Structure formats: C-alpha cells, structure tokens
Amino acid sequence: MIRLLGMSSPNVQKVHLMLEEVELPFAVERIDVWKGENFAPAFAALNPNRKVPVLIDDEGPDGNPCTVFESGAILIYLAEKTGRFLARGGAARYAQLQWLAVQLSGVGPMFGQYTHFRLFAPGHDYAENRYRTQAARVFEALDERLGQAAYLGGGDYSIADIATFPWTRDRTGKWGGNWDTYPNVRRWFAAVAGRPAARRMMAEMDKIWAADRTSMADAPTELVDKILGRGDFTAPPRV
Ligand SMILES: N[C@@H](CCC(=O)N[C@@H](CS)C(=O)NCC(=O)O)C(=O)O
Question: Which atom of ligand 1 is nearest to the CA of 51?
C-alpha cells in the first residue's frame, strides 16, 4: 500500500494526480500544517525539511519499504515504479524531465513567492512586481512550448504536465493568476482537466482544501509566523 501524506496544496495535488493516473491503491493522510503537524518529530523523521508531500511505499525497490519526499522526486519514483508517464530513454525522456524541472524551479517557486507577497505582505511593490514578472515569464515560456507541442514534454502526456497542472488552477481567484490570457496554456489546461484522473483528484483535493482553509483561518499567529518564516522566526542576519 502507498500512503500520501499531505494537504491540498499544488505540490500535493500533483502527487495525488499521478497516483490517480497510475491507478495504484493508495491512502491519503492529511497533515494539517496550519496546526503544525509537519513539525512533529514523527513527520520530521520522514522529511527533515518538514514539508509535504511525503510518500511512503510499503513495497519499494527490492520489496523493501521506501519513503520519498519532494514532489518532483516522488513523481519520478512513481513513474519508474509503474513504467508510466516518463519516457524510458532517449531524447523524449529529457524533454519531459526538463519541463518537469521548469515546474520545480520556475512555476512553483515564482508563482509561490508571488502569491506569498500578494496575500501575506501586500504593499511591498518591489517583491510583488518581481515575482509577478517572473511568473509571467515562465508562463510565457509554457505558452510558447504548448504552441509547438500537445504536451509540455512533447506529444505524450507526462509527469511534466502532471506537475504543472495544479499550479495553473486558481480556486480562490486570490492568486491573481489569470492564465486564460495564454491561449495554448488554456487549451492544454482543458485537456488535462478533462482526464478522469484529474477530475477524481480535484474532487478529493477540494474536500481537503475546505478543511485546510478552516485550519488556516484558525491558526495561531505564532504558528503562521513559523510556517512563513517571519516575526520571531526570521533567521538572524549572517555575519
Ligand atoms: N519543493 C517542495 C515544496 C513543498 C512545500 O512547499 N510544501 C508546503 C505545502 S505546498 C509545506 O509543507 N508548507 C509547510 C511549511 O513550509 O511549514 C516539493 O515540491 O515537495
């Protein structure tokens, strides 16, 4: 059995989508970060960076249990375990991996920082402008790519699409990411959103999202500061 430890955030949604796609039996265990559950010693033993998602597979390589953290590593793990959604070799494999890397290093961090400054520190024009510009830059690259190929890695749907799809969803309207202005991203989004696995993932994750929203609204300021790395939790200046 596979256990997915996480919440409803995009980095967890991508793993959930992959598990739906490969149709392996799995169970979701909600880690309520807004209650600080990711800082509990038992969770820290699974991921020293104390972030979700974490995947635990009772039947890993050589039949031994295997724990994997970092969503990109988890997608590669599941692709190699099942032989699906990642070309086994040749140029196609690297085309898919490079667009996975664009999501992991560009789409996620830039859009994540843009959202952070927009929601949690409005009025900091330099930061908000910088990350909005960086997010727009990477979405322009996605749009250009999707004007040339059906999917990010080429002709086949792959873990690059699975990783990117959740970051193009804006469930609240608060993220400010209206990617409808990118026609090729819009066409691709509709194709992925129409997949039965994506529909199942969105239905399940949106239930967890409702619980996450409630926890976030109730979270004590001290914990929010710890998660966001601010206030008393700001790292001291280096000398
Ligand atoms: N690079 C990591 C990012 C994981 C991440 O940022 N997780 C967030 C939720 S999306 C989290 O656990 N936040 C809680 C915290 O930072 O304390 C991945 O892709 O798995």
Answer: 12
Q: Is 235 left (phi over 0), alpha (psi -120 to 50) or beta?
A: beta
- Ligand 1 contacts CB of residue 103 (under 6 A): no
The CB of 9 under 6 Å from ligand 1? The reply is yes
- Ranking 89-98, 110-119, 149-158 by mean pLDDT, the lowest is 110-119
CA-closest residue to ligand 1 atom 1: 70
Name the 3-class secondary structure at 69.
strand
Domain of residue 111 covers 90-193
Same domain flag for 29 and 112: no
pTM: 0.96
The reported pLDDT for the residue numbered 45 is: 98
